[in-house]
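INFO  loader      accepted 1 record
INFO  loader      residues=597
INFO  predictor   begin
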Amino acid sequence: MEVRDGRADEAEALSGLVLRSKASWGYDAAFLAACAPELRIRAEDVTARRIVVAQDERGGVLGVASLEGEPPAASLGLLFVEPAAIGRGVGRLLYRDVVRRAAELGVGRLVIDADPHAAGFYRAMGAEALQDDAAGARGLVRFEAAPVPPPEWARAWTGGVPAVHVGNVADFNGQFAEGGVDRERDAAADHCACLAAFYGPDPAALVLPRVVPRGWVDLVGRQLGWSAVEVYDGLAGPAGGGLVDALRRRPALVARLAERGLPWVAWGRTRALGEVTGRALGEHELRYESKSAAHALFAGILARGGHPRIVLPGQWRARTRREAVRLLAARARSGETTVLKSEHGVGGSGTVIVTPRRVRAAGGARAVLRRLPRGPLLVEEYVPGPERAADGPRDLTFDGFVDAGGRVFVVGGAVMEVRDGCYAGATVGPAVVPAWAEGPLLAFGRVVGRELADSGYRGWFDVDFVADGSGRLAPTETNLRLTGPSVAFMVAARLDALRGAGHLVRIVDRVGLGARLPEPQFDDLCQELADGCAALGAVFVPAIPTGAFEPAPWLGFLVAARDAEVLDAAEAVVRAGARRVGTDFAGLEGDDDAPRW
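INFO  predictor   done
INFO  writer      dumping tokens
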């Protein structure tokens, strides 16, 4: 199915389609006759009203839409679907095409006077219902959308074209397989690789280590307006090795993906991926993935001045465990809380906050360190945060990227949720980062990006910060890869382009499910959650589905809305739905013939 420009010679046929579609709502002949002059399409209207049609693979016309008026305001004059094609996504395709074209024309306000029967459709598309007496007097419901083109960074990230998304999370983490990396979290890397679906706003192909549910791909595609996306999943199988090793064993697949000439986007850069894509990884390109190297980078930037709202905690590298014991013990005796870090970690793994009380309870610093993973340790000052959650966010992040030519793009700031030192999710969108923090965060992140570019790094990066409770930010690390917040930025950019500006997007790392479901029932659950969020005016996107099939099942997800209260309500709907899973199995324990999932 595709959208094309209408032709003057089909004006009469399109008028017939419009009237048939209007009649499908049950209106009588007299009403339709009265509407006919207004709904008629003349040959000269096709160009003047910017009329397009949706057609099937055989060229059959399925629907018609028009974009009328001139910037800065315009209207969706027509949107009608052939009755036999209703429910096949034709209206969604046409609406999104109108919004896209409106954004390209510079239209900032798109007005829709809808038949009352179609009001639910426009709400589901993200249009805002307005109180308008003139429209009401005509028996119509007025809606409005705010079309926006994709932001500059989103166009630059993949060159404005769809991309091949490679879920090489485990491969990237494996470059830093030191003792400090949390093995349990590393084992979940192939689940997190499902986030490859969101490595860019518009994927052409997904390359994934695990098998993913077909229903998941379909639902995400509907929510984010994807066209046909090729999915190559289950590649990292019993043969062992990483995802890129599996690709190298499939030269025909690599050739097929390469022949389209599309960019490849991965979680992070590795030497093996560079060999497959022809984009070699520099010898020291990932140096600032190291926490001590990042700390030195931050210190160098601050030494040059110009960042008064940025403060850097002290950090010491313990060459041996004995030295780490001495440093930790001395700080505990002084009543100071300490952050212990491995050189590399994933999502907060390898980072432990140690209070003097914890040292005493464990029986001393040596006992504390004995419980930590092996490997080199960094000892860092702890930055106290706000006393109350209401005083502002504690954990923030800056996202940006360096393109192939060394240009730094600022994507934005986000607020992260961190529990017990581990990343649990993030929220992006307008006014999410407090005004006092936004300027210093963006300015410092931009300078870090410039330093990374000068060092030879090319790709996505972030800078994580903690707020100290007195209006200052302390940078803690850089991540030279995509992240959970970066995924939220991608989805926000996509939804803004599809539905209009202003989306807040929250990614939740994982929420436990009440039971492990068969795939069809999991698909039903996701559709139920999508419908529940839509009823609130929000969007639900399952982000990590494969965790749902583990013995202790879980789901990663995104929710989006234009209002913070609606966003919170949507998250609550998903969490409640996840908890309810399994209640249908109650009472089956004594049934020997009941299925065991």
